[in-house]
Amino acid sequence: MPPRKVTGRIDWVGAVDWDRRLFDGIIPLPGGTSYNCYIVRGEEKTALIDAVDTSFEEELFTNLFKSGISSLDYIVVNHAEQDHSGSLPFILDLFPNAKVVTNGKCAELLTELLLIPGDRIMVVDDRQSLSLGGVSLQFLIMPWVHWPETMVTYCPEEKILFSCDLFGAHYATSKLFAGDDEEIRVGAKRYYAGIMMPFRTTIRNHLEVIGDLDIEIIAPSHGPLYDQPGQMIDLYKGWVSEDHSNDVVIAYVSMHGSTKKMVNKLSDELIALDLNPVLYNLTCSDPIEIATSLVSAATLVIGTPTMLFGPHPLALSAAHIVNMLRPDTKYLAIIGSYGWGGKAVETIDGMLNHIKAERIEPVYVRGQPDEQDFAAIAALAEKIAGGHRELGLLG
Ligand code: FEO
């Protein structure tokens, strides 16, 4: 992808990764991704905002060349994760007079992860400004967007916020701006769910700081830019809020059909009670899609048979991912079937120790569910509905 003009003084010079299908060895990327970085030209100095994944460093070099960049004074690093910083050693070799500009925590991580020498790093404080001549960069340290060292960079003269991962989307596109593309907003929610959901309280505070800035463009480090920044900020405010939907996420796996029959019965009962069951068969579901549903769902049900001496491994994996991402789920139940024992319910429940949801009595049956078991499932649906009613989600 060639360089693109964002404003008179700012170019996009990143890379679009159309082919990438997995991030961190676990997060599916159905729509690829991009590693955005930007050139800001002042009258005296030139800065690069973030860099790209190591695999695209030559593309970054080409884009810098095409943008007419023959020297760089600063490389602002908003975040040390290697999809943005991996090409930093290469860029520092290309521009031996350039300094990395970042906060103290990020400087530590860059030294540890990429062996960046300390004398190449200029450490800045929260809200410190750096003049490039006629245009400036202000650094706002915002820890725990999902790592401890994250910050954003604001250019007041151009009214643009370089937000790095915040507001990003793993989404490969030739569009520079998202416009009204709903698919990109879905990608942004998926991105939030997959890496930022555990830090929603912190992000809520960061959104207040960002709300005080005069922003016309949000320029994240993944996916397209937003020239209606209020829309994206409002979406984030909704995702980090304590509001819940009437959804009941049922993530399940069934070996010989018994757990599936229980899931189907529960789904039917929930629908009859005006709740919205959202079913994910774990043999063919994307874990981040489940996480995305859990951004607002009031209830999670995990359905698992016993396999040998414990829960099915796919249910274990799902429980582990949910526990890592810590959705604000209010009610939790476990259902399933066993043959000759095991501790599936206790094991799954124990793995969900970060989920503070109220536990509803599990329905765990021996063999194929009978009428009595289906009555227990109907009672479970009633209890879930009662919980949703308490939350004001049902009339
Ligand atoms: Fe896009 Fe946290 O790196």
Characteristic key phrases:
single chain; 395 residues; alpha/beta; Metallo-beta-lactamase, Chain A; Rossmann fold; 2 domains; six-stranded parallel sheet; 34% helix; binds MU-OXO-diiron
Describe this structure in words.
- The chain folds into two domains: 4-239, Metallo-beta-lactamase, Chain A; 248-384, Flavodoxin domain (Rossmann fold).
- Helices cover 34% and strands 25% of the residues.
- It contains twelve helices and 24 strands.
- The chain has helices at 57-66, 82-85, 88-94, 104-114, 182-196, 200-211, 229-239, 258-272, 287-293, 313-325, 344-351, 371-390; strands at 4-7, 10-12, 15-17, 22-23, 27-28, 33-35, 38-41, 46-49, 74-76, 99-102, 121-123, 129-131, 136-141, 151-155, 160-164, 217-220, 245-252, 276-281, 297-303, 306-307, 310-311, 331-338, 358-359, 363-366.
- The strands form six sheets. The chain has a seven-stranded mixed beta sheet. Strands 17, 18, 19, 22, 23 and 24 form a six-stranded parallel beta sheet that branches.
- It is elongated, with a radius of gyration of 24 Å.
Sequence of strands across the biggest β-sheet: 1-2-7-8-9-10-11
Structural class: alpha/beta
Oligomer: single chain
Mean pLDDT: 97
Percentage of residues in helical conformation: 25-40%
Within CATH, the superfamily of the largest domain carries the name Ribonuclease Z/Hydroxyacylglutathione hydrolase-like
Low-confidence stretches: none
Number of continuous helical runs: 12
Count of folded domains: 2
Name the beta content range: 15-25%
CATH topology of the largest domain: Metallo-beta-lactamase, Chain A
Q: Kindly state the number of beta strands.
A: 24
- What is the architecture of the largest domain at the second tier of CATH? 4-Layer Sandwich
Shape: elongated
Please give the largest β-sheet.
7 strands, mixed
Bound molecules: MU-OXO-diiron
Identify the CATH class of the largest domain: Alpha Beta
Q: What distance lies between the first and last C-alpha atoms, to the nearest angstrom?
A: 52 Å
Task: Report the C-alpha radius of gyration, rounded.
Answer: 24 Å
